[in-house]
Amino acid sequence: MKKNKLIISILVLISLNLFLYADGFMELNRKAADLRAEGKYKETAEMYENHIAENGPDALSYYSAACAWALEGNKDTAFKDLSLSIDNGMLELGWIKTDEDFETLRDDKRFEGIIVQLENKITELENNLPEKHNEKIIIELPKPRFESDISLEETLHKRRSIRNYSDDPLTMEEVSQILWAAYGLTKPYPGGPAFLRGGLKTAPSAGARYPLEIYLVAGNVTELSAGIYKYKAEDHSIVKISDGDVRKKLAKAALEQSWIQEAPASLVYSAVYSRTTDIYGDRGRERYVCMDLGHSAENVYLQAVALDMGTVAIGAFSDIKVKLLINMTREEEPIYIMSLGKLE
Ligand SMILES: Cc1cc2nc3c(=O)[nH]c(=O)nc-3n(C[C@H](O)[C@H](O)[C@H](O)COP(=O)(O)O)c2cc1C
Question: Could you tell me if 267 and 307 lie in one domain?
Fold first, then answer.
């Protein structure tokens, strides 16, 4: 989906919840969308360029300005802003290739040049990703509990997408419980086939292929240093991938959705599609992997309610940026982020 539609769809989703996120960039996009709808492309482009002049360069603003200049028919400025967008970190090859706003640029050989330049840049970045993660630092998680003071019906009744959290850190018990709910073992199968990766889990999976991987992006979790960790269901542990608080960068990769930065932690889901497509072909890619993801994510929503926590499923982000930030293995593709925090 191209950028403007993506941002507008987030705004629609959020306004459905009657929240007002008059956050700077969101507000800019809201106003720009109104101007675009009236056909005022030059004014739209200038609005983004003013934003850049006041706040410094950023890839999304240059990209949006390029879209508006292309619609205005000002090809030279459109190409200039599109190049500046790439220089400032725009990696969305799919957007550029398919964006209807760039119809007027497609026949120009500068367009092909930009595509090739970006393809080469992305290939180089992806080649630096690991084929496998080394598992030097493994942290055992507290045992999950299987009982609760709240009924399943009440968790269903109370479930909501929550984007505001208290400043309290999450505990290791809470993180452990959430990860277990997401993809923890419920029927261990020691010595079972490799694809089971430890056994049957809390979420159903087509053919028990378990295509999902889950990362914990921790910023404020007691007794856990800020960093990126990968969940290992087979022994209910997490493996350290990298040190440091990347919440702000993750929010940026998710089109500035600020709740990701403010949440003490987030889950980032990826999928290794081939685990499912090897058996089910296209049906696996088009249907089963996302169905698997939905089962796991709903578990997280309901478990969060039972822990007096909030979460929101986030599908709007730059795939390549999230993949690079997390340092996923080459075969993984990011598919969901779920920010997590205690209720305010
Ligand atoms: C596939 C999918 C993608 C979503 N993407 C986002 C997102 O990028 N940002 C966000 O804030 N909410 C996102 N949501 C949450 C929806 O906005 C939310 O579920 C919807 O408004 C209904 O509210 P409820 O979950 O409280 O019932 C997404 C939900 C789904 C199922």
Answer: yes
